[in-house]
Amino acid sequence: MSMSDRWVDAEFEAIFREHYPRIVRVARRVLQRDSDAEEVCADVFLRLYKKGPNVAAGGLVGGWLYRTATRASIDVLRANQRRGIEEELGGNEFIPVNGDGGSPLADLLRRERIVEIRGALAKLHLEKAQLLLLRHSGLSYREIAEAMQLSFNSVGTKLARAEAEFSALYERQQRQSLKKQPLQAAKEGR
Question: How buried is residue 8: exposed, middle or buried, by Cβ count under 10 Å (0-12/13-18/19+)?
Fold first, then answer.
């Protein structure tokens, strides 16, 4: 590894300070636990450090970080779902209790809805899930195009398709959930 392949500490630290808060927010949108989001971010920045400053050479380090963080977050989400971790609602660190006097029931329903949304998101094709996450994290079409290495003109169309597919998955999931409720009630003897 030559000297040009190594980070200058101040340069890497500046990139970290500039991008870490937004990258961790993107990961938190996907993951249930703050600790998982922070772990993903640490891994993403470690990957960046190992890749060297060539990643930042074209000025696209932000896009690389977003793309890598969303992929890693979706991978963790899918792995958690395979292990059944997403079903655990009790220890949810990220979802704050409403400070406006909301009821515990309202908080529980909100948490359940978030779990359902994450479930539908995990079933989407990776690129579509990334597009939705980046858009709903506040990125502009231009920033999404940069992060995903897409043509600016195609972002709107791809987002519309991703939203339509997500909506269809979410609605199908809701219908299946409604069908299961009477069965579960019958099993419990209600």
Answer: exposed
- Model pLDDT for residues 28-52, shown as the tens digit of each residue: 888 878 899 999 999 999 999 998 8
Following CA atoms 153, 157, 163, 166 in sequence, which dihedral angle do they give, to the nearest 10 degrees?
A: -110
Instruction: Tell me how far apart the 2 most distant CA atoms of the chain are, in Å.
Output: 71
Whole-number Å distance between alpha carbons of 141 and 150 = 10
Among the listed residues 110, 113, 26, the one whose alpha carbon sits nearest the alpha carbon of residue 62: 26
Q: How far is CA 77 from CA 19, 57, 66, 91, 167, in A?
A: 22, 31, 16, 16, 19
- The CA distances from residue 55 to 1, 2, 40, 156, 183, in Å, are 15, 15, 19, 27, 53
User: In terms of C-beta density within 10 A (0-12 exposed, 13-18 middle, 19 or more buried), how is residue 38 classed?
Assistant: middle
Residue type, 188: E
Return all residues near 157 (Cβ < 8 A) that are at least 6 apart.
none
CA distances from 58 to 15, 29, 54, 146 (A): 14, 28, 8, 11
Q: Look up the pTM and report it.
A: 0.68
